[in-house]
Amino acid sequence: MELLSVNIGKPRPNPWKRLAATGIDKRPVTGPVAVHVPTATGTGEVGLAGDRAHDVKHHGGPDQAVYAYAREDLDDWQATLGTHLANGGFGENLTTKDLDVNGALIGERWRVGPDVVLEVSAPRTPCATFQGWLGRAGWIAEFVRSARPGAYLRVLEPGEIRAGDRIEIVHRPAHDVTVALAFRALTGEPELLPRLPAADALPESTKDLVRRRTGAAADRIGGTGS
Q1: Other residues' Cβ atoms within 10 Å of the Cβ of residue 101
Q2: Geometric angle at alpha carbon 202, from 107 and 47, rounded to 5°
């Protein structure tokens, strides 16, 4: 398993969300990149030096410090979309090789290079910026149907990474909640939501969302006989 490229965002105007800028235009960089733990949400701070989130309400912070996507999935999308997708083309920080990103367990830990340890925290949720960036009508629904969202990661041990680094899975938790399953539960298959609490490493905001949705469902079921 290998890190093919480290991709840093080049700010550009964001007409799709009426924001001043977006960092979705991520491009491979050469040499080492420092990885650190973001200190807070809502500031745009992310885990890679030289990068940042511009939609600070929905992106960045410790639970979305780094975003990874598999080169194999990009290759499949190239065939579907009929267009070239460079590393970083989906706005990912890390483009990986021979690593099942969507099959990774929530809470799974990866060592990248000699120093950095990352923890899988949540699936990526598509937004209007992503659809506008690709210029494809109906892209959000198409992306949801595919259930190949890629993974957000926390930084547990900072350091430096670079293209060509080895990726090693150093911990797999004792549950079956994968990135793909969590994504399906949160986007279109609510019957899967009761399985998510097994994944303790989910962000607190996601846990709260699951509690609200499953609680509402229980209330509806409980009210049918009254």
Answers
A1: 27
A2: 75
Q: pLDDT-derived band of residue 10, with 50, 70 and 90 as boundaries?
A: confident
Rounded Cα distance between 45 and 39, Å, is: 8
Domains recognised in the chain with CATH numbers:
2-223 (2.40.33.20)
Token pair in block for residue 195: 């399985």
Which residues, 6 or more positions from 215, have their beta carbon under 8 angstroms from its beta carbon? none
Vertex 181: Cα angle to 175 and 183 (nearest 5):
130
CA dist 204 and 42 (Å) reads 15
The amino acid at residue 63 is D
Q: What value does the mean pLDDT take over residues 168-174?
A: 98
Residue 112 pairs with which residues in a beta bridge?
116, 167
Residues 167, 111: Cα–Cα separation, whole Å = 6
DSSP for residue 191: G
Lowest-pLDDT range of 29-33, 41-45, 100-104, 127-131: 41-45
Distance CA 32, CA 30 (A): 7
Whose structure tokens read 């960092």?
23
- The amino acid that residue 169 corresponds to is I
- pLDDT tens sequence across 102-152: 999 999 999 999 999 999 999 999 999 999 999 999 999 999 999 999 999
Cα 200 to Cα 158: distance, rounded to the nearest angstrom: 22
